[in-house]
């Protein structure tokens, strides 16, 4: 079967690989879509250390095509979201870890479910942290997939005041999405104390250091080991994805999706993502 592998630094290629062994605890999933994440590109360019060769991707969606004898037969033909630390940019995924396969309800589109990985899940983690603090929130990189989901969760489920920040080229896009998704900013500012959320990274450090000097608390999901900032990275649980899918079903949550590229055209996807601002999640399609 075909897979997209990171073969070396800055090198990815489409290649034939052997199907992994199928055991009684396995599920075989025919891949439909996988999200292309900033994380995948950071591994490719060496910013995040990784080993090569390896199959790219961490999340994906598809249909279950084979069920091991120790797994529930009701999963056969089910649409699922799958997390696979051994890669998802491949035509078929063999999953051996039951909690990492999450059924997708009928009225959630495969593309929407795919785009929950690596953005909406992170937004939910941040939402849980923010809810526990009585602070005004400033969100840098608010037009990111994570930022747009976080602001929807804050709008629908809290009255916390937040202020979105984006760079000039992303202002129109931010305003359009905020209108479309009915993102509203609650007027009440409860305390003078502020919480800064960094979704953009080192390019905005000058601003972040000014906040630090003012005594603001800073949470980053991008920069590890940076003085004055708390780095957050936590795995989402199946119930988190179920919550997000329920929000989609109830039309309380909208997921920004940009372009979908065929797996044969994955090099164009990488170049497109490297050279364009965030306008929603880009997806790799494995549907022929
Ligand atoms: N800690 C974790 O566990 C974890 C998990 C998943 C993701 N992440 C990180 O979380 C962040 C959000 O993820 P995402 O997928 O939602 O991101 P995304 O949609 O790709 O958006 C990236 C954001 O960063 C901004 N940005 C990038 N380069 C910038 C620059 N030079 N100056 C100013 N702003 C810049 C973008 O602004 P423009 O659109 O204007 O370029 C955009 O707002 C990413 O940095 C990602 O790597 C962390």
From TrEMBL:
Molecular function per GO: NADPH binding; oxidoreductase activity, acting on NAD(P)H
Presence of the UniProt keyword Oxidoreductase in the record: yes
Record keywords: NADP, Oxidoreductase
Name of the protein described by the UniProt record: Nadph quinone reductase related zn-dependent oxidoreductase
Source organism of the structure: Lactobacillus gallinarum DSM 10532 = JCM 2011
